[in-house]
Structure formats: C-alpha cells, structure tokens
Write a structure and sequence with these properties.
- By secondary structure, this protein is of the alpha+beta class.
- The chain is 36% helix and 27% strand.
- Strand 13 and strand 14 form a beta hairpin.
- The chain is globular, with a radius of gyration of 23 Å.
C-alpha cells in the first residue's frame, strides 16, 4: 500500500467533515485529523445551519429517527431593545416547513459527532475502507513544505504525507499563518467575542412557551441594549429541550469600554424581554470564543497555494448582514468545494496552485463569496454606533407610545416617530443612515 494519502484534512468541524464526506464518496484515500477527543468535543453550544447543503451530504437526513439537528427553523424574530422595552419584527411561514429545511438549530457537540458518523459510513462503503481514517485527539503542529509545496503534516514525532492538504482548523488558524497565507496579526476590529449559554427546560414547557410543534423551532436576533451599549447584538435559538442564548460583541469596543462579556450576558438575560423567556431554565453550558465579524479585510491573502487549500472559518468565511449570522453554511460549502478541487487535481495529477485555483474560482462563483462581497457595506452599517444605540432606542420610544392606550388624545404615528427621532438622531443623520442601509441590504 502506498503510504501517501490523496488528501489530509486538518480539523473535524463542519468544513473538514464536509470535505471528508465529499472525498469518501469519490473513493479518495484521505486522513482527517481532529485535535478533540471526537468531532464536536471542542464545540459546546451551537447555532443555526442555514441552507440545504446538508441534504447533499446526507440525503433525506430529516427522516432519521436520531438525526443530528435539534429543530428546523420556521419562526424568525428581530428585536430592537432599549433598557426597558423591546420592539419585535415577527415572521412565521409554512414554506419553512418544506423539506429540505433551509434552517436548522444545532448543538455542535452532537451535530459534529453525528456527521462524523455519517462520514465513517461513507468510508466503509468506499473502495478504500481500510485506507481512509478519521483520527481524533491528535494535534497537528506543522504543515510539511517542500519547495514551497505542502506535502503533508507533522503531529508530534509522526509525519503523514499527502498530495494535498485542506486546512479547516477554525478561527485560530495557526497553520494557515505558518504557511504564509494569513498575516501574523489580525486587526481586532475585524473580530468579535461570542459568549453563549445553553439553558435546559422541560421539553413541553419549551414548546408551549415558544409555540413550537413537532420539530419546529424559532430564532431571535436582538439589536441594542442586548449588548449593553457595546458594538454587537444578541441571539436566542430553540433546541430540542434547551435554548442557546448569547451575545456577539465587538472586540475593540468591548476592550475600550472595559466590559466583561459574561457580565453583559447576565445583564442581557435580566432584561424584561428575555427574563420571561428564560424563567425556570437551568444553565447547562457556557462558552466564549473569538469569531469573525464578516469583514473581508481580515481574510487570508489567499485561500490556496501549491498543495494546500483553506476552508471554513480558518478562511474567515463568516457573514452577519442583518438577515442571519452565517458561518456553518459557509464552512459546509467551502469544505465541499475544496474537496471537489482536490478530486479534480487528483484526476489531472496536478496539485499546483494553478490547478487548486479552481477552488477559489468555485468559491467565488458560489453564494459564499458573492454574498461576502455583495454585503460588505451591510457589515459596516450593522457595526455603526447608531445601530446599537440611537436606532433601537428610537424604535422602542415609538413603540412605547404607539401601543399605549390611555384616556387622552392619541397622536398620529408620524408625530410619535418624529419625536422619537428628534430625541435620538438628527434628521440628516437618519436620512444618511437609511440611505446607507437601503443600499447595503
């Protein structure tokens, strides 16, 4: 047996497992290395997997008795908050009930382990069932380079060789830096701190409280006091019998205002709009991590080189353009495309950067890069100070009076909005922000 693999994948998260599934089905010989005890071991908590790519990897996954997701999303909310009020845009539609689902809440420890099991099944059914491996609890310390080309990896004293390497190592992309594709220093203004808790409920209590039926679920994003005046926002997602609740906070603003993420999360949970939803729950998990904001300026200078490609959050493929926080779907699509490029390269027996550029081209032609490029202005608008201070306060001031019925003359809505605007923003400031937002979105 040739001891060189067709491909080595570093990282057993969504990007790495998606690449592995694609390679297994193409009868490639590969090695996936994950530093956790199992895929998902390092990923407490979770989020929302958007899109339908999962159905391509695991057809009709929803028919499984114990599929890896928590709930499908058919109810979405966007909430503006000040210190004592919340104004919510609420949308629910039966078109979200159609399969394949376009949004799934997941707990990563469970989802990644389930997907790894599916990859192992694909390996077992391939022509290289004894020559492809999912190796866990191993730390990759170095990408082996010869003549400027990636030829394998080193883990401790062991070395493994391959025609190409896919780096799916996550946001702490040390190997991407080692091979020179990412700068040693990433500006903090392109990064955020995510803090999250998973809170358990009796399943019936959860379903009654959020009007859930069967496997249906809800997502709620929060703007304003959610982040305690720090750049960022909040979220709440329903799982099977838990809630994922947390904040995403701008790293620079957090540092300059000298706030602690966990203190802000506690304040968020005590807000009247949130406290009622969390009543009676038991905190099961807490985690904090660095995340990308979607600013393309912090992406690696390139995502491929001779014998190597970078996928998922290692390439800073994350976007929050106001509709949703997208990251897991980008990881899945980029992992699939990287694997497909590796398969093409194997057929041509050419793993040069000129050949692996096909990965970049495919990613550019996909929704991932088209949305990242198309919504960069939206990223900037969402991180404007007005979006987490003046705008939510203005909206809540309007809501307070508009929905109050009292024994006195009622003002017209435009009068209420005019006064709310004057209290928090200049007319031209609002016009300029509105124009920026309309063009960006």
């Amino acid at each position: 047996m040739d001891d060189k693999f067709d491909c080595i994948i570093v990282g057993g998260g969504i990007a790495g497992l998606s690449a592995a599934m694609t390679l297994a089905r193409a009868d490639a010989r590969f090695l996936l290395i994950e530093r956790g005890e199992w895929s998902g071991a390092k990923n407490v908590s979770g989020g929302v997997l958007w899109g339908t790519d999962l159905n391509g990897l695991v057809p009709n996954y929803w028919e499984e008795v114990d599929a890896g997701f928590e709930r499908f999303v058919n109810h979405r909310r966007l909430t503006f908050m000040d210190e004592g009020a919340a104004f919510t845009l609420d949308f629910k539609s039966n078109h979200f009930n159609e399969t394949p689902y376009t949004g799934l809440t997941v707990l990563r420890s469970r989802f990644d382990a389930w997907l790894a099991g599916k990859v192992q099944e694909a390996i077992d059914q391939s022509s290289h069932a004894d020559e492809s491996f999912l190796a866990t609890d191993i730390l990759v310390e170095e990408v082996l380079m010869e003549g400027g080309k990636a030829v394998g990896i080193r883990a401790g004293e062991e070395t493994f060789h391959a025609d190409c390497v896919i780096l799916a190592e996550g946001v702490n992309n040390l190997l991407t830096r080692q091979v020179g594709l990412q700068t040693d220093y990433v500006p903090a203004d392109g990064l955020a701190v995510g803090v999250k808790e998973v809170i358990r409920f009796d399943q019936k209590v959860l379903e009654d409280r959020f009007q859930l039926f069967g496997q249906s679920g809800l997502t709620n994003e929060f703007v304003g006091y959610a982040s305690g005046g720090v750049e960022g926002g909040g979220f709440l997602y329903t799982n099977k019998d838990t809630l994922s609740v947390g904040l995403v906070l701008g790293m620079v603003d957090l540092r300059e205002k000298m706030h602690k993420p966990y203190d802000l999360l506690n304040e968020f949970k005590q807000h009247p709009a949130i406290a009622d939803q969390l009543r009676g729950g038991e905190v099961m998990e807490y985690n904090a991590k660095v995340v990308s904001t979607g600013d393309m300026s912090i992406m690696p200078r390139e995502i491929y080189t001779d014998g190597l490609m970078v996928a998922g959050e290692a390439a800073n493929l994350v976007l929050n353009a106001g509709r949703a926080i997208q990251g897991m779907d980008y990881a899945m699509r980029s992992g699939i495309l990287a694997a497909e490029a590796a398969i093409e390269a194997k057929k041509a027996d050419d793993f040069s950067s000129a050949m692996l550029k096909n990965y970049r081209t495919a990613l550019e032609n996909s929704y991932v890069m088209q949305d990242l490029r198309g919504f960069q202005q939206a990223v900037n608008v969402l991180h404007s100070p007005e979006m987490f201070t003046a705008v939510p306060r203005m909206v809540c001031d309007f809501g307070r009076e508009f929905f109050t019925v009292d024994n006195k003359p009622t003002r017209k809505a435009y009068q209420i909005m005019s006064d709310a605007r004057k209290a928090h923003m200049g007319f031209w400031d609002l016009v300029k922000l509105g124009r920026r937002a309309s063009r960006a979105m």
